[in-house]
């Protein structure tokens, strides 16, 4: 059984960057990439982007192009999400989630516990 | 982007009720439609994938139907642990989620 464990809560000032980690443990293979999804307080889910297991492919939601970087360190089975130029409306819980199968990379069957990012001056 | 809508946005129901939630896509998405359940303070959990398939461990009272633009999630007999928010997600193109349907007592 795969578990995804995310790094702890962050508080950042506007204009700063945040980097969230997501470590896979348990039976970690096969894996079909990691998506990042966020949820603003009291709001719904927003898909941000996906990175392939070997960092060979990425896909981004248009609104995050140029501001979002995703990486995977296969040696430590850890995925990272960095969001730059933070604004107050980036305040949210950020989730990593695993793709279910190679043809269902965006079907998310294992989720991390979430990381709260607060952007405030 | 493909836009997803859900109805109703919220509903009140009782244990044992049959509950139906609908999801509509702004263009045809074949059967590339998933449903997730999210309880307060928890991460979402995959409930149904590819419109009608249940992952292992999901109770059979949950079912999904639909193709093209119109989809339905049905809970045949609502249980106490089913009070939650339900989201649809299309994966036909760059993924998008619906706004959610909150099911409460």
Strand content of chain A: over 45%
Query: Can you tell me the overall shape of chain A?
Result: globular
| Count of β-strands of chain B | 10
Q: Give the fraction of residues assigned to helices of chain B.
A: under 10%
Brief description of this entry?
In chain A, 0% of the residues lie in helices and 55% in strands. Chain A is mainly β and 121 residues long. In chain A, strand 5 and strand 6 form a beta hairpin.
Protein model, in words:
The complex is a heterodimer of chains A (121) and B (105). Chain A has 121 residues and is mainly β. Chain A contains no helices and 11 strands. Chain A is globular, with a radius of gyration of 14 Å. Chain B is globular. The mean pLDDT of chain B is 97. Chain B is mainly β and 105 residues long. Chain B is built from no helices and 10 strands. The chains are: A mainly beta (121), B mainly beta (105). At the A-B interface, strand 5, strand 9 and strand 10 of A face strand 4 and strand 9 of B.
């Amino acid at each position: 059984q795969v578990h995804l464990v995310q790094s702890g809560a962050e508080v950042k000032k506007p204009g700063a960057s945040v980097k969230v980690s997501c470590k896979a443990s348990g039976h970690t293979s096969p894996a079909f990439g990691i998506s990042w999804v966020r949820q603003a307080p009291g709001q719904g889910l927003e898909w941000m982007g996906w990175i392939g297991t070997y960092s060979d492919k990425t896909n981004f939601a248009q609104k995050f192009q140029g501001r979002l970087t995703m990486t995977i360190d296969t040696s430590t089975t850890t995925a990272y999400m960095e969001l730059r130029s933070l604004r107050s409306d980036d305040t949210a819980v950020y989730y990593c989630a695993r793709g279910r199968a190679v043809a269902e990379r965006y079907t998310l069957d294992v989720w991390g516990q979430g990381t709260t990012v607060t952007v405030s001056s | 982007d493909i836009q997803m809508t859900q109805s109703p946005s919220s509903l009140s129901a009782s244990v044992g009720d049959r509950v139906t939630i609908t999801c509509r896509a702004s263009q045809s998405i074949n059967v590339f439609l998933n449903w997730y359940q999210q309880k307060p303070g928890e991460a979402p959990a995959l409930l149904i994938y590819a419109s009608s398939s249940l992952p292992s461990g999901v109770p059979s009272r949950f079912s999904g139907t639909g193709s093209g633009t119109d989809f339905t999630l049905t809970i045949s007999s609502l249980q106490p642990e089913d009070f939650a928010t339900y989201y649809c997600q299309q994966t036909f193109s760059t993924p998008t989620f619906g706004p959610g349907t909150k099911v409460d007592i």
